[in-house]
Amino acid sequence: MTDPLSLSPLHLDTPEKPYLDSNELIINMGPQHPATHGVLRVILKLDGEKVLGTECVIGYLHRGVEKIAENRTYAMFNPYVDRMDYVAAVSNGLGYCEAVEKLMNVEAPPRADYIRVILTELNRMASHQLWLGTHALDIGAMTPLFYTFRDREEILKIFEKYCGARLTTHAFRIGGCLYETYAGFEKDVQNFLTFVAPKIDEYEELLTTNRIWLERTKNVGVISGEDCIALGVTGPVLRASGVKWDLRKAQPYAAYSKFDFEIPTGENGDTYDRYLVRMEEMRQSLRIIEQAVNTIPEGPIMAKVPKVIKPPVGEIYHSIEAPKGELGYFIVSDGSTQPYRVRVRPPSFVNLQALDRMVRGLLVADVIAVIGTIDIVLGEVDR
Amino acid sequence: MPNFVMSYLGSTVTPGEAGNQFWALVYVLIIFAGVSLAVVAMNWFERKALAHFQIRLGPMRVGPHGLLQPIADALKLMLKEDIIPAEADQFVFWVAPLIGLLAAFTVYIVIPFGPSQAVSDMNIGILFMLGVLSLGVLGIVVAGWASNSHYPLIGALRSSAQMVSYEVAMGLAVVSAVLMTSMKTGTGTLSMIGIVESQQQQGIWFIFKFFPLGFVAFVCFVIAMIAETNRAPFDMAEAESELTAGYHTEYSGLRWSLFMLAEYAAMIAVSSIAVTLWLGGWLRPFPNLLRAPAWDLIFSLFPSLTFGALAAIAVVGAMRMPAHSYFKVQRIGLAAFAALLGLIALFLLVIAIAGRSSDATVAARLCEGIDYVYWFVLKVSLFMYLFIWCRATWPRYRFDQLMRVGWKVLLPITLVVLILTAIVGVIVP
Amino acid sequence: MNPGLHQALIAVYTTNTGPGMEPVATPFFFYLLSGLAIAGGFLVITRRNPVHCALALIVTLIAVANLYLMLYAPFVAAVQIIVYAGGIMVLFLFVIMLVSIERASRDRRFNRFWPVGLATACGLLALFVSAFVKGRALFPDRMIAIPEGSNTQQVASMLYGEAGRMGQYTFAFEIASLLLLVAILGAVIMTKKKI
To answer: Among A23, A79, B150, C182, which is most buried by a count of CB atoms within 10 Å?
Structure first.
């Protein structure tokens, strides 16, 4: 494979100047870099300090997850799914289980749906908290990182009590949930809700009206709604550009249709709007969790699913709203116990395309802010 | 000879002015040792305070509550391999940290810890300080160039451009404070001791004079001094998450620690300027208003009370150590430290009472001197805390925004404050 | 200590301060500083590396500032350090570092026209020697008297005037600052690609 640096700068989209000007410079960021959220390599073409074009080189974390899926049974593949977006593992599991259930025409019982929603929304909260801490750290505010990680601990404690793992949870099974909620689950979740609501206000107090924060994030990395749709960008990035599209409302899955919550949108599509959208999403997650934990029905947690999962021949694409965007699973079954093809549509991979559009004309220091604001996880980008 | 040595004890001028070279040398040595100790303490304090801002504990292992951590760091840095890049210019690489260090330490000649407690009181004290601090910029520029690497060079140029820009705003804020020294008497003074004495004569700290003009000038100076020392939120040039990693990238071991020493010493130096110009230097609160001997005694007790409080905190810390054999040494160490602080508190108490009750010259002079130094150091410590607080709280400015703040915001504000101060000074009798 | 002796010593040390500057070891310092300035100047023109030249120039400037100090002009000395060594030399270094210098350091050490340079320098030296010899009466042979009033006040009264009158050089000072402003604007307009 050719080294991208050896390619002519033509493909960095400056056709009128095929050679480097005396001011222009090609700089390599990563793959080891404190601020690229994983092993991402970004090649920047700069004019002095302004960015003319970028190229992302990915694949440093490619583990061949989709190929592995072809050699595992459906249930065996479930733990692999967590490792893609390792920050929001519960959502990954939810998407995969629901996709296979759809393929097999099985519906999870309502109690399982409620448990799934609670855990997924808790995970959304944890993912956004991690995003906030690392994004603020990139821009230079060191302190919010510690606050968000401390509060995220409570969520991870709940996960550990529920399924034994903090990060790569493997919480759900095909057909429902394996574990019943432990004694004291509702109390823990209620305590968490009362604990974390003022904390979100604390994060906002430090950043939202801070002049330095505003100067670093307003009008930085602007992308319009049409560009987002054209590039296939989803999630908070799309919503901050003004497009009110959330799969939890547009194509409801699990038990989301039963809850009352709002979809926050932004206006300008800059980094500040994405920040505000994610902060508001955290609050809406708390709303959903509260409603779910108050109205969780009794009943079985696992549907009638055969011991050996052999879906009928066919294919399905099922997507959910992961914290980072639309996470989709395209599964092709050939009637055997192992899938013929599992294709994951990771939100970070598609959103990363927007990086080039967002950073044209910005300064180098802003590139790091924009990478942070798209909220990528390399495990998902590379799979 | 003993007379020559002892003669200074009764003098009311600094040894530099008195031409007393022995005492000037003694003062220089005391200042050198004091500043080094202060830098070490500041290193510990920064790590602990930053950690507590970030809800963690900071160094706890090396010595009780990490008190010996800076010593461990210094030892480690001294024992590291001294790497010099192959193509680097050897002489310039070696001399660059020295320039910064010399500049940062030379300013301490004029810093007034008391009306006669300075190495020398120059007529142009404040100008001398600004001038020598601006020589520190050269050290940074040359350090970045000597590394023979692209990123340190860019970082050094950015750092020095930032420092030069904020020197302008600093200078104008200083000028408006110096202008206030001429208000009552008609002749102003650039001498540091003279500035504090004019605050004492006019009976008001310059931060409160012509409110809010003095206060705005003070705030502008504080912002400029944070930018001048490359501290957050103006530390883009040395932030690790940016592309350019700063001018001291290629320096390792002892050379790097020289840069850090110069940075902390410069921080203390610019804080001393701020304290002298606006916060009344060595003056205790209300020196003119509360002049009774009882008040003198009460305010003289402050140094011993401070050390007593610190000793009490250390004792509480020693008592709260886990009762485990691993912590025995730490507990004993912290208790010994508490005992040392307690002894110092006791000594200061004795001096305060002896100095203020009787008129015995030695004790009175000692008590006065200690009081002056105490109030000055207390105010400078508040500024150190401010530096750390700012670093923990705010994100950092992008470089072009930083330059914009320096030229387009601070410069007009300080110019306006200067003009208004002059106008108000002429109008108000 | 004997209180009488104590008071006497205080009297001695507090009345002997004058304006704070007593000349001490004048010839030693003069020759040291002048030698340093000349050595710095020599290094400026003989060093191959432009950054070394700039550092040598800084040494020269600081030596000259100390010479001003010896002439009882501390204000001018401090301003020389702030403006020249701390500002102008930093700009010199900026330019040296940003402009490619490899070509310059590979050039020949002394160019082909060195006889012309030597002749010019000899002529200049002859001029200085003749001026010194002919005008010996103008050079005093002892240190100047300690001036009354501090240097800052003198400079201020010359530049800004005092007691309501214009100083000697106030008009020239204002014109010079306007000239500098025009020069800055001109430099910015000439170098920026677009404002």
So the answer is: A79
Exposure b/e, A109-120, CB count within 10 A at least 16 = b: bbbbbbbbbbbb
Q: Which SS3 state, helix, strand or coil, does residue A329 take? A: strand
H or E stretch covering B63 = none
- Span C3-112 CATH architecture: Up-down Bundle (1.20)
- The residue assigned the tokens 């070509």 is C103
Kindly report the CA angle at A213 between A212 and A219, in degrees rounded to 5?
105
CB contact under 8 A, A216 and B241: no
- C155 neighbors C83 (Cβ within 8 angstroms): no
ipTM of this predicted structure? 0.83
Q: What residues of B are in contact with residue A143 (Cβ under 8 Å)?
A: 53-54, 392-393
Determine how many CB atoms are found less than 10 A away from the CB of residue A49.
Answer: 16
Distance CA A362, CA A376 (A): 20
Q: Note whether B396 contacts A: Cβ–Cβ < 8 A.
A: yes
Exposure b/e, B322-347, CB count within 10 A at least 16 = b: eeeeeeeebbebbbebbeebbebbee
The per-residue pLDDT string of chain C (195 residues; one tens digit each, 9 = 90 and over) reads 445 444 444 443 333 334 445 566 678 888 999 999 999 999 998 888 888 899 999 999 999 999 988 888 888 999 999 999 988 999 888 888 877 555 555 565 667 788 888 899 999 999 999 988 888 777 666 666 666 667 788 888 888 887 778 888 889 999 999 999 999 999 988 888 765
- The answer to whether B141 and B160 are in contact (CB under 8 A) is yes
How many angstroms separate the CA atoms of A74 and A57, rounded? 31
- By the 8 A CB rule, do B399 and B154 touch? no
- The DSSP string of A147-159 is HHHHHHHHHHHHH
Domain ranges of chain B: 16-283+375-427, 294-357
Q: Which CATH class is domain A65-382?
A: mainly alpha
Q: State residue A14 phi and psi, 5-degree precision.
A: -125, 75
For residue C11, give how far its alpha carbon lies from the nearest alpha carbon of chain B (Å): 9
Q: Note whether B57 contacts A: Cβ–Cβ < 8 A.
A: no
Determine contact: B398 vs chain A, CB below 8 A: yes
Q: How far apart are CA A207 and CA A204, in angstroms?
A: 5
B to C contact (≥3 Cβ pairs closer than 8 Å)? yes
Query: In Å, how far is B69's CA from the nearest CA of chain C?
Result: 36
Angle at which helices A271-294 and A110-139 cross, to 10°: 150
